[in-house]
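Priority: medium. Attachment 1 of 2:
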């Protein structure tokens, strides 16, 4: 979760605005990528919101670049987004299946909420623990639309996470 930083938030908002000007969006993306270059450990957690935004706004190439910067990060915003990104590019490939298996290792609760096996609460949990159910809820609240809009993704997820 990104800590409060008004300047970063302003740039982030420009990038993610659905009706934003293309030039402003590209400038914002460039600024955020610069931020990650000078702060590779991303101590404010901007990468998590950035991956969600890039997924929603169709910046597929840039999303792949950001995901490659954090191969060890087990957060759903990275692992499940990686799986969905690969699925969007390749369909139900061996690599997409591998990426999904990696995501399941980091947090096995995400599919239950994406597939509506469990109901989502109306608001996000106040605290989020890595690998826990509250982390899955937070991820799904922020990303389910991208999963639902990706043709075949929910069915693929269901086939690869059957109970």
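Attachment 2 of 2:
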């Amino acid at each position: 979760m990104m800590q409060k930083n008004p300047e970063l938030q302003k740039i982030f908002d420009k990038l993610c605005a659905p009706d934003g000007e293309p030039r402003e969006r590209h400038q914002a993306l460039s600024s955020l990528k610069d931020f990650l270059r000078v702060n590779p450990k991303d101590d404010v957690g901007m990468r998590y919101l950035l991956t969600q935004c890039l997924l929603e706004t169709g910046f597929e190439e840039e999303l792949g670049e950001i995901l490659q910067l954090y191969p060890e990060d087990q957060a759903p915003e990275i692992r499940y987004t990686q799986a969905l990104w690969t699925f969007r590019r390749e369909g139900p490939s061996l690599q997409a299946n591998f990426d999904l298996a990696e995501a399941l290792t980091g947090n096995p609760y995400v599919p239950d909420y994406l597939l509506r096996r469990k109901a989502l609460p109306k608001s996000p949990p106040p605290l989020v623990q890595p690998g826990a159910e509250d982390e899955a809820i937070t991820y799904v609240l922020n990303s389910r639309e991208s999963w639902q809009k990706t043709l075949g993704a929910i069915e693929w997820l269901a086939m690869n996470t059957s109970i």
